[in-house]
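Our consortium's second objective concerns turning raw sequence data into structural hypotheses that experimental partners can test. To show how far this objective has progressed, the report includes one record in full. It was chosen at random from the queue rather than selected for favorable results. The single chain below, 392 residues long, was entered without modification.
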Amino acid sequence: MKELELKYGCNPNQKPSRVYMEDGQELPITVLNGRPGYINLLDALNGYQLVKELKTATGLPAATSFKHVSPAGAAVGLPLSEVEKQIYWVDESIELTPLANAYARARGADRMSSFGDFISLSDVCDKATALLIKKEVSDGIIAPGYDADALEILKAKKKGNYCVLQMDASYVPAPIERKQVYGVTFEQGRNELKVDREFLQNIVTKNRNLTDGAIRDMIISLITLKYTQSNSVCYVKDGQAIGIGAGQQSRIHCTRLAGSKADNWYLRQAPQVLSLQFVDGIGRADRDNTIDVYIGEEYEDVLAEGTWQKLFKVKPPVFTREEKKAWLAGNTGVTLGSDAFFPFGDNVERAHKSGVEFIVQPGGSIRDDNVIETCDKYGIVMSFTGIRLFHH
């Protein structure tokens, strides 16, 4: 297939629309089911690059959950804890594989943002992963292949219209990439930067104790940022992104946005949340939305008389600000990556509040001394890469 006609472009009024190879070669994707849209394919191709690089860098199966050309979550296939299985709504009857673990983590970290996602997998999709995807609201998936059982499960989604794409794993893109804006063609070399352990050796803080786990998480954060619309910041813990802030004009706003998502991820593990008794038959998305409001400042919206009865069997107590602060103090060992330098120490101050103990960023600000000093105040380990990772 050398070209694929699309229903429309970014919006229904943008017609005609298609994807094709300028050199006349075959497209590296095969449509196995459904009909992809313009934004679906942007998500698919960006997401596949991300998981392919994560797999190469870590040796572990990887998954990402994309929305609007940025990842809502990304993870490698480390085992889930019992609490993580609970907060990600994992069916206990499914015998999880490493790839299924990766997807559950990628989809579960920010379930609000992942609603209606496009999924990318580094490995052949197996039955366990397909069974997890079956229960989620999703637009489509791309992977280098599918087991027969997995493909059958996925083809049944969305009344048979679920988009299933197969990526040619041997495909190598041209070294020069182009796009048009307002009729003007832009051209640049592809970002072929390889992120590995050697990339992290320039530690600039007094604390130089960079653990193997932190190195892995730094690599995950940087590869995730490489395919996130800039400005962007990514918090990672135990092999999964737990908070991604994308497309903000101010660096501190990225750090705050991603930090608030990381905080919400951890708050969902609090006893007050795990013990919530939802009414029978409530949908997964309704549970997610209710939890998001319950742990936020607008909790009265779900605890008001006449409302809580529609959501809970028993009215839960208020999760107070003091209780939340005390619980969040237990979130430690978090890694933060930034796609460009921190211009002020305020980013480190905000990161510290979300349990960050390791930071990786390009460096190069005229206030690097202030940023390093703020890290030293909290014993944070920080590595300068010298390389910016903007993506647009």
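The partners drew two points from this record. Residues 271-318 form a domain with the Helix Hairpins fold (CATH 1.10.287). The mean pLDDT is 95. Both points have been shared with the crystallography group to help prioritize constructs.
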